[in-house]
Amino acid sequence: MKTLLIPVDFSVPSTHAVDYAADLANDRGFNKVILIANCIASPLSDYWSNQVDVWDARREMRRTLSDLNTQLLNLKARLEKKLHPDIQIDTRLRQCFSISSICKLASSETADLILIGSNSSQLGTESIIGHQIINICKNLTVPIMIIPSGSNYQPITHAVVSFDEHSSTEIYYLNRLKHLQNNKNPTPFEREKPGYHPEDIVPESHNYTLLNSILRSFRYYVYEQGTYDQPIGLSKFADSYYSQLIIAMPGNKGFFYNLTHKDISEKLVMDGHKPVLVLP
Is domain 3-147 annotated with CATH 3.40.50.620? Predict the structure, then answer.
């Protein structure tokens, strides 16, 4: 079963990600969509001065959980109207937000992809989950697709991925691109890849053989690294080649690995218009 997991907090970016997910799930042959919401509250123990405060806190917690559950069910109903009837929708409500809870659910449900909405300076509300994008990307072992609020779903026919053609390890990671191919339509996608033209790599070299072996089911082009400057230049590069997706490689070579400050991460995902797929 092909499963899509979406952490939601009912903000504008989060709701937009759910709408995007509906088109993605319909087009990419997903069988199941899981919406997970979190209730952030203070612990009950050793905080209030008397039992009355504890009762009031518990009553408030129940009210909050009930309200969130209603919002979650409304979001599920919104999603049901957009999805094919044979796609299953599940909802999960957690009493605290933690990356580990998302990790555990992704593992137990064998999620194939996690979808997260990113914040935008032009929107009136921000996503709590959106502020945790970098930490989530560094801790999960499932591919994560970051959806900018300015993006609308388009069938993915072109994508850009940055990698080091001199590194056999990074070329091997390109194997994970095979999971992006549409089960409903086996036609290979084109992948625009900054690096070198295939003919510039010595045909007898191990990396040349490995690259062509891994990407033989794709139509791909390779460009020199000097063509762009990460991360802004990569987004412009994707625009110039009409790509619908930017793919981030894992590990310390991936440009997401060192993004720890909000002003840096915003350059790629905030106010952007192209989804970014982060490979684990």
Answer: yes
The residue among 63, 45, 72, 61 whose CA lies nearest residue 96 is: 61
- The string of pLDDT tens digits covering residues 58-97 is 787 788 888 889 999 999 999 999 999 999 999 998 766 5
The answer to whether 154 touches 187, Cβ cutoff 8 Å, is no
pLDDT tens by residue, 121-176: 555 557 777 777 777 777 778 888 989 887 889 888 888 887 777 777 777 878 87
Exposed/middle/buried for residue 254 (C-beta within 10 Å: 0-12, 13-18, 19+): buried
Burial class (CB in 10 A: 0-12, 13-18, 19+), 99: middle
CA atoms of 114 and 232, how far apart (whole Å): 24
Give the bridge partners for 193, in sequence order.
222
CA 140 to chain centre: 11
Residue type at 206 in one-letter notation: H
Q: How far apart are CA 28 and CA 20, in angstroms?
A: 12
Residues facing residue 11 across a β-bridge? none
Q: Which residues of the chain form CATH 3.40.50.620?
A: 3-147
